[in-house]
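thought: fold this chain, then report.
action: predict
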Amino acid sequence: MALGILMAVTMAIMRMGTNPVLRAVSWVYIWFFRGTPIYTQLIFWGLVPVLYPKLSIPFSDWSITTNDVWLAVYGAILGLGLNEGAYLAEIVRGGLQSVDKGQWEAANALGMKRSTTLRRIVIPQAMRVIVPPTGNETISMLKTTSLVIAVPFSLELNFVSNAIGNKMFLPIPLLIVAALYYLVITSILMVGQTRLEAYYGKGFDGERAARPGRGMSRRQQSILAAGTVKDDPTLEVTP
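observation:
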């Protein structure tokens, strides 16, 4: 997911940019990895040592067997991460486009650079839209790891539970154990997603209006409680 998020943010920014080459590169990346099955991609990453038996430096005698450095876990991480990045790129792009264009115009009027505007203004506001589908993708990724046997990566939870179950002639109990593990991890991820949604949703759901003193110092809360200031200083008080 870390690799997927990194690729998604990069490709979304490239696709929203003005450089036609970068936009084309991001479009081809998203088109390819969304258009081919994840299982096929994982098989390809598992066949890297077959496609490139040796790694060497041009114009030198140094070479090494690919199997010595290419582990199955590398193929699993790259396969899942690059595929997830293509799906998350559209989620990130949708979140960035949900921010009002006036935010960009105001930042440009203040002389802020595009990178600073993205980092300080646009992305924090877009996170409210990005976090919920990203949480769903994270949970989906957890279950998609059961396909990494195509690499093959034999230390995956579902494969190990099947192997132990077949060895002990108890396939159903071991499948239940694997399902419980998935449920526990999914529950932890759902709690984290809920907290992130609450954090980035501040100011959008009326939470601040219901508890105006939250996040203020004691002195600020005392001044607010004294009634000497308006809750909204932009409103005029009618005498």
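thought: worth noting. Strands lie at 54-56, 63-65.
final: tokens above.
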